[in-house]
Amino acid sequence: MSESPLGLILDAHRARKQDPARTGWRQHRRFREMVAYAHANSPYYRELYQALPEQIDAVGSVPTTDKKRLMARFDDWVTDRDVTLDRIRAFIDDPGCIGEPFLGRYTAATTSGTTGTRGIFLMDDRSMAVTGVLALRMLGDWLRPADVVRILVGRGRMTMVIAIGGHFASAVAAARLHQRRGDALQVLPVEMPLPELVAQLNRFQPAVLAPYASVGALLATEQETGRLRIDPAMVVLSAEGLPGAEYRRIGKAFGAVVRDSYAATECPFLSYRCEHGWLHVNSDWAMLEPVDADHRPVWPGEPSHTVLLSNLANRVQPILRYDLGDSVLQRSDPCPCGNPLPAIRVQGRAADGLTFATERGGTVTLPPLAFGMLVERIPGLELVQIVQTTRTSLRVRLLITAGADPDRTWTAVHAELTRVLAAQGLGHVTVERDQHPPERLTGGKIREIIPLRW
């Protein structure tokens, strides 16, 4: 297969139309090629795979790995000897570098650390090209001709509501989109007070609205009340999951197609949702293995303990049988939408907004990612878990980076949280430190926001 842009597009089209057996053959060939490449070019994988036979017959014979082990061996993990952990940390700590290529050739992004370890990831040109091609395939499945017309009538105006201040993959993508689209793209910070966000959207009138899922739910409520008055053709939700009824409510509120995807910084092109609510894995370029606690395969229809991810496109930082920490359920029969790619549902990835009582007797709900930038902004902070204990109080659990001053880190966290709250008219909400460490879910991930149910 040619890996030119046209060759990738044609290959992606064939994979979408072919039977699962042919796509499985393509996937396993690419997996074997990635294992061989990692063994030849990554000291970490050369050590990990030293007992592997030259010809891999069973995927299950390849050892697993995870974020903690990879980050601990970062300089040995990468396949480019010019890349070091010190150099990439200096790069991502410089806000002026957002959207710029690292070393002139790699896209950099970080994860917030829901597995207990903050991840730093690079994507090479091959991975970015595959991401772009699979995004086109996704849009081809999502958009009807009438939707395309509405977007064109709206001059392609798009609003993204994201965490702007850090090196999230979405922030990098927004910076690059802005370079190409200029005034047709509006990028708003997720922590913006809701009334101001509504006013900005009413002025801009986007044809495509792309917020985090929890923000999309809040904006749908504003649209229902009449305070928000926009007419997008499509709403693309990201970063979080919602109950099925919420997707339907958002679509009805905006009169728009509502879609989302399940992905990870480690594999941004992992899957996308169909109209029947199932997430279809791009299995021609990604391998997702639902497994039990001992990393043994589970049957379709049975919820997994975790899932092993292999990114079959990115060579600079090979991700192979990587424990992602999510529980998934794979559909055991063909999806009624007709898409032959494997269909899954992810268990427990629901967006948790925090709803506070105001001093005047009302309520204000903040999306969880309004707080998610703490890890990116504060030196010495590896992970934060925010627990809402009452309508007007929060307790905060911290994981401090080795060698950092715990008291200084807490002072910075407290100041940042109270700033975010005050900007929303919630200066009366108390923020206290919890001396316990962040608690893990069954699959090993850490729930960063734990709301009060009231």
Sum up the structure in keywords:
single chain; 454 residues; alpha/beta; Rossmann fold; GMP Synthetase, Chain A, domain 3; 5-stranded parallel sheet; 20% strand
Descriptive account of the structure:
The protein is of the alpha/beta class and about 450 residues long. It folds into three domains: about 5-130 and about 265-345, Rossmann fold; about 155-260, 3-Layer(aba) Sandwich (Rossmann fold), CATH 3.40.50.980; about 355-450, GMP Synthetase, Chain A, domain 3 (2-Layer Sandwich), CATH 3.30.300. The chain has 14 helices and 20 strands. The strands form six sheets. Strands 4-3-5-6-7 form a five-stranded parallel beta sheet, with helices on both faces. Helix 1 crosses helix 7.
Map the helices and strands:
Blueprint: H1 5-17, H2 20-41, H3 43-48, H4 67-72, H5 74-77, H6 85-92, E1 107-110, E2 120-123, H7 125-142, H8 145-153, E3 158-162, H9 169-181, E4 185-189, H10 194-204, E5 208-211, H11 213-225, E6 234-237, H12 244-254, E7 257-260, E8 271-273, E9 279-281, E10 286-291, E11 306-311, E12 322-323, E13 327-330, E14 343-347, E15 354-357, E16 363-366, H13 374-377, E17 381-390, E18 393-400, H14 406-423, E19 430-434, E20 449-450
Parallel strand pairs: 3-4, 3-5, 5-6, 6-7, 17-20, 18-19
Antiparallel strand pairs: 1-2, 8-9, 9-14, 10-11, 11-12, 13-14, 15-16, 17-18
Helix pairs in contact: 1-7, 11-12
Number of strands: 20
Just name the CATH architecture of the largest domain: 3-Layer(aba) Sandwich
State the helix count. 14
Can you give the helix content as a percent range?
25-40%
Given the helix and strand composition, which structural class is it? alpha/beta
For the termini, the CA-CA separation is: 56 Å
What is the domain tally? 3
Under CATH, the homologous superfamily of the largest domain reads: ANL, N-terminal domain
* Gyration radius from CA atoms, angstroms: 22 Å
Mean pLDDT: 85
The top level CATH class name of the largest domain: Alpha Beta
Strand order of the largest sheet: 4-3-5-6-7
Assess the beta-strand content as a share of residues.
Answer: 15-25%
